[in-house]
Amino acid sequence: MRLTLIAVFCLFAGLARAQSVEDLGADLENFDYPHPVEVFDLETLRGPVPMAYMDVAPEGEGNGETVLLLHGKNFCAAYWEATITTLVDAGYRVVAPDQVGFCKSGKPAAYGYSFHQLAANTATLLDELEVEQVTVLGHSMGGMLATRFALMFPERTDRLMLVNPIGLEDWKAEGVPYRGVDAWYRREAGKDFTAIRRYQQNYYYDGEWKPEYERWARMLAGMYVGDDVSRVAWAQALTYDMVYTQPVVHEFGNIQVPTTLFIGQRDRTALGKDLVDDELVDRLGDYPALGRAARDAIPDAELVTFDDIGHLPHIEAPARFHDALLKASNVSATE
């Protein structure tokens, strides 16, 4: 009996530790990134908007090329840690920003949250850093942004690389109803670590959870702990609306740069699955089929698949992903 009580106590103590999350600040001011973070003030008529970024120099002389890393909706530039190391070791300069509305960057309540605006912001940052040409690597929502960047600035884009991008389907055209900003805000304002971890476990990692995933779930959850959570929740609500209302899939045929898709085949991520019936749930987020369709729609596109990997190849299987990434980058360098 005593051993049973001890076991129960330990179980609940472990759960309590797992669910307790440090207040990292609405701008992640209490979370350390893997490299020094700089801040560039974007000038607007309503005042400057800070845009945080890492600019990491290559090892040695470098190869003269720059890779731009664009993060996903539920992540920040910090989760590119291993990818940055891989790229700088291979001679690349790496620029990894937090987009406006996310993480260490500003979260203005009244702002033009659109993929066009975020792409323009990113181009302005590159101008500030005197970077002319980039390989653009975007994951999840960052894949939608990377696509928009390549469409707006083809002359600056050496190659487009998309890692399990969302937006390979138009959810509203598929029948997902519009939720609305207020509804998104209510959901976001009530978000906590338990919900974040459960969502990531169910959708990103196909039910499997490893200790190395914990840091990124806590990073996100840490912005929802303090007194300023409403600012985070409102920015997230506006950007959810952006993702739903601004599909890029219909413009894939207009992409003018060489493109590589890296698709984890277990991924089933899709916006608004909780709003539709089971039949539509089963059809949405079919990444094996979506990856093939995107490859066929994008001129000069290549498809790299990972059969047993979900939404985050660079987190779930970093060695395999980075090997494939460097092979694709070397192809780009010799073209």
Characterize the structure shown.
Pfam families: Abhydrolase_1 (PF00561). GO terms for molecular function: hydrolase activity. Keywords: Hydrolase, Signal. This is Alpha/beta hydrolase. InterPro entries: AB_hydrolase_1, AB_hydrolase_fold, AB_hydrolase_sf, Epox_hydrolase-like. This protein is α/β, with parallel strands linked by helices. It has a single domain (22-334), classed as Alpha/Beta hydrolase fold, catalytic domain (Rossmann fold, 3-Layer(aba) Sandwich). Strand 5 (134-139), helix 4 (141-152) and strand 6 (157-163) form a beta-alpha-beta unit. Strands 1-2-4-3-5-6-7-8 form an 8-stranded mixed β-sheet, sandwiched between helices. Helix 3 packs across helix 4. It has helices at 2-19, 81-89, 115-128, 141-152, 171-174, 181-189, 193-204, 211-221, 229-245, 278-283, 287-297, 313-316, 318-334, and strands spanning 38-42, 49-56, 66-70, 93-97, 134-139, 157-163, 259-264, 301-306.
Index terms:
single chain, 335 residues, alpha/beta, Rossmann fold, eight-stranded mixed β-sheet, hydrolase activity, signal
Structure summarized in a few sentences:
With 335 residues, the chain is α/β, with parallel strands linked by helices. The protein has 13 helices and eight strands.
